[in-house]
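Lecture 7 notes: from sequence to structure.

We start with a single chain of 395 residues. Read the sequence below before looking at the structure.
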Amino acid sequence: MIEFVTHNHPIQAPQKRAPKKTHQPTWTRVAENMVRHTKSRIYYLRIKSKGKQLKRSLGTTDQKLANRRLIEKLSELEQNPSSSPTLPKSTTINDLITHWLPIRTSSLKPKSASRIHIALKGISKIIGQIKVLNLSHTHIDLFTTKRLQNISDSSAKKERDELISLLDYARSCGLAKANLARPDKFKNIRGIAPIRVKKKELKCPTQEEFETLLKAVKTFNNIAPDGVYRPKGKLDPRTEQATYLLQLLAYSGMRLNEAINVKWKDVEFAGNRPGLRIDGGAQGTKNGLVRRIPLFPKLKALLLEIRSKSQSPDSEIIKIKNARKALETACAKTGIGPYTQHSLRHYFASEAVEKNIDFKTIGDWLGHQDGGQLVASTYAHLRNDHSWRMAEMMG
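Now the structure, written as tokens:
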């Protein structure tokens, strides 16, 4: 007799396979011949040249600026098809820097170009003699431990960013297959971890402190460098100009370069909306845009005081380039601060915040283009402190 064996095991449903992880693409196509790196958000030119794909950093995360640079670089390639540099295999990091520096700084202001030059010099100190083809993770680690860990966070961040840009350029020249400074877990590249820079503590004088500093500046330099004694109350011309410059910075919120380049023809006293045009002179403003601010009461009074000494329309309002030493001496004598000339820009902004002027308007006066976000994040605590002080007056 045949016995049938039955198994009472429950029937299990087939297990679903875990969905495959979708990796975010490294490059995003933005427009014809232009891509953006997903992590750094830097824009690159991408074209085919001699059967090979060529990428060149456009050195910016701003799309409008990237579009302009793209047109310039495409024009260069059309005029000189072989403009993509072919560097020898013996090229060292120092050689690469020599080629890259003029390209990197071509469209930058002198101060920005100088900072990049200093950053590349720091890179050169540690790995400058290494051949680009021989660059390894060990060299990157050496640069991190011997250089980046021994300088300030802001300098370390700048040098890390510039090394990444430099090695991107090395890739475009065919000297490297991968950028060993840029972390990439999918390619097992350790790279250099992003460096966070702590926000500096905001320092600016109170209204009382500023008035005290101004009085201090007016009390010294009774004897000028020419040896001529001037009685009390009669200032050395440079001291007088220093007080004018410090007040102009505090009452307008301008940066130093903007303030020393304002001319009398930029001031409009007449009309329903008197104002001051700010263009930054030959160097331009920080963001390259011209702006106009109202003649605030204190600013207008100051300009009228200076104008009483008859000035030509094409001459600068301020006759000195900075008042750094005067301010440093005043701080030392009074025990206030120390403060810098840039602190007076913060003074202007904090005064505006405490008068309950909205952040966007203050940002526009300062020349920001973020709708007041930076002002809000930087000065919001002042508004809270002011609110509590007002609450105490309620009794």
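Strands lie at 27-31, 34-37, 43-49, 52-57, 267-268, 275-278, 291-294. Keep this in mind for problem set 3.
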